[in-house]
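Cross-check.
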Amino acid sequence: MFLYHTISTSAGSTFRDRGSKFTGFLFPVSTRGDIDRELKALHGRYPDATHHCYAWRLMEESLHEYGADAGEPSGTAGAPILNALREASLVNVLLVVVRYYGGTKLGKPGLIHAYSETASACIAAAVTVPVVKAAGFRVLYPYNLKRKIAGLLHKYAIIETGSEFTDQVAADVWCPVESADLFRADLDALSYLEVSYVETGTGIVRY
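Predicted model, tokenized:
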């Protein structure tokens, strides 16, 4: 099971080099709309900043990521920020570095160092939590199969997030994607005992 990490609250950092000030902001995000809102808010808070460079990684059906130099020389800002996120295995995060130019050019190596240091310090200041990419299921089964279903959940390290009890049990669960095919096959094998399921999509779940 491959674990990623994410954050539950924002974090920040500051780095200075030859008069330039770099301020890092790390945000938890779940959608591209969240990313756009955080970027817009920072532009509103720091409208006179020289650059708003950023990178994000978002787990949707698959992993998507992006880095923006935002006016800095190509490869000197977005890539170092994105690499810091990759090295920390962070997903569903946005990291923005706001720069105020101090009057002295840093050159490409200096910029790469500054953005990398700011991003790394920002990540170090954050509280991270492990998450796993998972497939969602709603499993329906008779009450007398509760122990058998519980055994399957344990077998595949599945997290149950809720249950409803009517004439049968309806359990909402998340299964690590690496085990989803095996879990699905085991459920299919129990269909003769009135076990059924509905797949509810993929996402990331805290472990």
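The first helix runs from residue 32 to 45. The radius of gyration is 22 Å. Passed to J.P. for a second look.
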